[in-house]
Amino acid sequence: MGFGASYAGGAEHQAGLLAGELVKRGRRVIVYAPSPSVDAQARRLRRPQIVPVPALGFPRARTVTYLPMLGLVQLAPGFEHPAILHTHMAWLHCGVPELVSRVTGARTVVKFACSGPDGDVANLTRSRLGRTALSMALQADRIVALTPAIVEELLGAGYRREHIRVIPNGVELSARSAPARDIAAMPQPRVLFLGRLTAQKGILPLLDAWSRVHEACREAILLVAGRGDLAEAVAARAAQPDVLGSVHVLGHRTDTAALIAAADVVVLPSRSEGMSNVALQSLGARTAFIGFGIPGIAEVARHEAATVPAGDFSALADALIAALRNPALREEIAWRGHEDVVAEFAIERVAARYEELYDELA
Asked: Pairing with 65, which of 14, 148, 176, 222 sits 20 to 30 Å away (CA)?
């Protein structure tokens, strides 16, 4: 996986948070990442050692060259061999540490971060190379699963229950950011979609559902922040008469905290999630969040008004309308979620659980 703004995604964000917190707690952390992705975002962390892994930049050659280079870098003569190799994303590279461990004697941990048809197990089983990587990953000393749904998939793939540890994603809790300046002057209430513009995130059905929200709450606006292969379709749908003027397409943004601070409600109608960073960040910042009650969201957003049945965009529209019409309900969702995030998902608590796992293996 990448490490930095060039390849920023949910797994990268979580790897950065965890690495920084572990260093803060006095742990020695070495991060292996593709060399193009080791950038300013990575270097702003609390100084884990970052080892760039060279790979050709061409799409078809990148994976083919990155996988062996990842192993060779870790086996280079004179290089420090970590006692624990932690793969923070179950992708094609997740089997490499298992091969390296046979030479160095390191213990291995692999994190599986998503379930369902878009999940890690499903994605790896779709190709021969992926099935090989999965087979190697299932030999790890321990596997971290974000949710009970991932645990069931791992059991179905043949992994041992006693070696699975359920550890959630974490969130960095800090003072609430100032609202994004370009958003602060826009009408309220504001609903924010923040994520990749892909079918998995449900962005186009959300825009269809927004038509009914807009009809019921004429003053409300929908902010769409993100990029992806549906960007042109999103722009075209936002220009349709039934939502025209109420949808603002912001494009790719890096000021996540400022956008959340400017929103009255954050919405995420994903068909699958690992454990939503957007939900964690929104509720951590005391902003109301509404989404589908799927694994990875239901564990975080627990207020009864915060989730609706998966795939039911009519119910999602109803939930948004109810929250937009009732500021007290928004406040209740936000505060209940914030209390849960502080109690269970603060990065300090999550890092402590990883430390327990590492000490168990050491």
From this structure: 14
Q: Decide which of 3.90.930.12, 1.25.40.10, 3.30.160.20, 3.40.50.2000 is the CATH code for 5-170+346-361.
A: 3.40.50.2000
**Considering just the CA atoms, what is the radius of gyration of the chain in Å?**
21
Tokens of 265: 């409600």
**Dist. CA 100–CA 113, nearest whole Å:** 22
Per-residue tokens: 289: 């969040």
* Helix axes 327-344 and 313-325, enclosed angle (nearest 10): 110
CB atoms within 10 A of CB 60: 7
C-alpha to C-alpha distances, 274 to 145, 167, 298, 306, 312, nearest whole angstrom: 9, 12, 11, 18, 20
Query: Quick one: DSSP state of residue 162?
Result: G
pTM, rounded to two decimals = 0.88
Task: Indicate the domain borders of the chain.
Answer: 5-170+346-361, 181-344
User: Which tokens in the block code for residue 62?
Assistant: 């990148």
Mean pLDDT for each consecutive 10-residue tract of the chain (362 residues)?
49 88 91 64 58 69 71 76 90 89 93 92 93 95 96 96 97 88 94 96 98 97 97 97 97 94 97 93 97 96 97 98 98 96 96 97 90
Q: Residue 178 carries which DSSP code?
A: P
Listed in sequence order, the residues at least 6 apart from 333 whose beta carbon sits closer than 8 Å to its beta carbon are 288, 289, 290, 301, 303, 305, 306, 323
Quick check: helix, strand or coil at residue 142? strand
User: Which one, of 245, 136, 135, 270, lies nearest residue 194 by Cα?
Assistant: 270
Q: Which residues contact 344 (CB under 8 A, 6 or more apart)?
A: 168
181-344 homologous superfamily: Glycogen Phosphorylase B; (3.40.50.2000)
Q: Which run of H or E residues covers position 350?
A: helix 347-361
SS3 48: coil
Whole-angstrom CA distances from 222 to 89, 190, 214, 245, 326 are 32, 6, 9, 9, 17
